DNA sequence: TTCGTCATGTAATGGGTTACATGATTAC
DNA sequence: GTAATCATGTAACCCATTACATGACGAA
């Protein structure tokens, strides 16, 4: 059961592959590490976790001593730590390899990209190129529709259109760079992130431009939610 | 009745203010002129139109001769042309002036911007500045969360983050330009778009950079590498 | 002791899509 | 004459949010 919407499921499995976590933390990770794009609420996340457990892809581990507490007195609402099962792991790997045409859509693409470190180069290439051609289609549509109605539109609408197109063009250029450096880099197979910390960080992860430094990270303050 | 989701309602009223239209055409306009962002389906649009009629903001006009056709024989499924009523018009103007804090959110902002030609400069300023500060907040959050987890993340996630931030920074710069030129331009009151075609097109619409030139990537700035 | 954050959950609701059903008009 | 596109609509479903309910833990 549960055609539980791919994207969240995918992201959860991917994050849990790195290390076990409880729901609350998971959600924060979704909204930061990946979450430039999407902010999921508890009302979405918790039911999804239950479903994944029901599918055998996760196990729940309550942090409290095993059944010592009567659960009725001072019930000690335990942290529930979710851990990926082997089935879950292989299911995630299937999803990773799949790369169907949904994978080039806006939100999907972002999440896919976030887990690129765990994919093989040919999958990365397929996703990047798929995304690029999707954007090029979109660009084409924008261009023609703009050409058809240029006279009819006021300056603001025109400026909006122009800015929109420019953004898409930028993303295409970005993809070009990425594709280029994937092509140049040596093939790098999927890496199990659970073992990543032990290994050296110096290794090439596949051929990223390694530009680093776009905007200053100032290490000072913390966020108020 | 009908807390019919603001954004579509707003866009429909705005488009119909320019000229009466039937649903099908309306939808196309939504997905081109405004629709760089959102693609609404008929399943959304038609019920919405009905609701707007029920509210007295639109009238339906079936194109066929007034009741001459029996409607049973060759029923001639007529085009239904929707026209803004005076009540609808004033309701739209209320919405335009309102500019609550929803107006700076991603999709909302785009639609608001598309109708800037029909607003006064101070409303435009409020929306632009609201949008900008919303983006700056977001940027701040991204920066700190990135700073907190930079070491933990692999190169792809990092690159994704970087690209995301760069996009937001770009939009902020765009807004800065717009705000600047609004400030410089003379005040321009709302223009009834129904009368726009008769008037001269040469007039300043409020102070846009008037850059025009489709999708030229401007040669000046590039990444702040 | 109260406030903020951590932590888990559910029921009601909302906003939208998909798939379907129907038929007219135009272009080839 | 048939395919594509124009044109209008509905019902079933889906995904996710909101608001609510509960409660522990740490710091002021």
From TrEMBL, chains A, B:
Residues 183-202 have a biased composition (Basic and acidic residues). It comes from Streptomyces rimosus subsp. rimosus. SUPFAM superfamilies: Winged helix' DNA-binding domain (SSF46785). Residues 12-93 form the Transcription regulator PadR N-terminal domain. The lineage of its organism: Bacteria, Bacillati, Actinomycetota, Actinomycetes, Kitasatosporales. Keywords: Coiled coil. Residues 183-225 are annotated as: Disordered. PANTHER family: CONSERVED PROTEIN, PADR-FAMILY TRANSCRIPTIONAL REGULATOR. This is Transcriptional regulator PadR-like family protein. The keyword Coiled coil applies. It comes from the Bacteria. Signal peptide: none annotated. Residues 125-159 form a coiled coil.
């Amino acid at each position: 059961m549960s055609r539980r919407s791919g994207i969240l499921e995918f992201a959860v499995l991917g994050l849990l592959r790195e290390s076990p976590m409880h729901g609350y933390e998971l959600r924060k990770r979704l909204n930061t590490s990946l979450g430039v794009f999407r902010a999921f609420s508890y009302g979405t996340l918790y039911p999804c976790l239950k479903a994944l457990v029901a599918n055998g892809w996760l196990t729940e581990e309550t942090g409290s001593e095993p059944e010592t507490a009567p659960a009725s007195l001072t019930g000690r609402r335990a942290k529930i730590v979710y851990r990926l099962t082997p089935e879950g792991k292989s299911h995630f790997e299937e999803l990773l390899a799949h790369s169907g045409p949904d994978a080039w859509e806006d939100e999907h693409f972002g999440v896919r990209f976030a887990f690129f470190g765990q994919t093989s180069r040919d999958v990365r290439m397929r996703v990047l190129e798929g995304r690029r051609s999707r954007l090029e289609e979109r660009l084409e549509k924008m261009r023609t529709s703009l050409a058809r109605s240029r006279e009819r539109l006021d300056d603001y609408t025109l400026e909006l259109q122009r800015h929109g197109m420019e953004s898409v063009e930028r993303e295409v250029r970005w993809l070009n760079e990425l594709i280029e450096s994937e092509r140049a880099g040596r093939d790098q197979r999927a890496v199990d992130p659970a073992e990543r910390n032990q290994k050296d960080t110096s290794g090439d992860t596949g051929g990223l431009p390694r530009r680093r430094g776009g905007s200053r990270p100032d290490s000072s303050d913390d966020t108020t939610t």
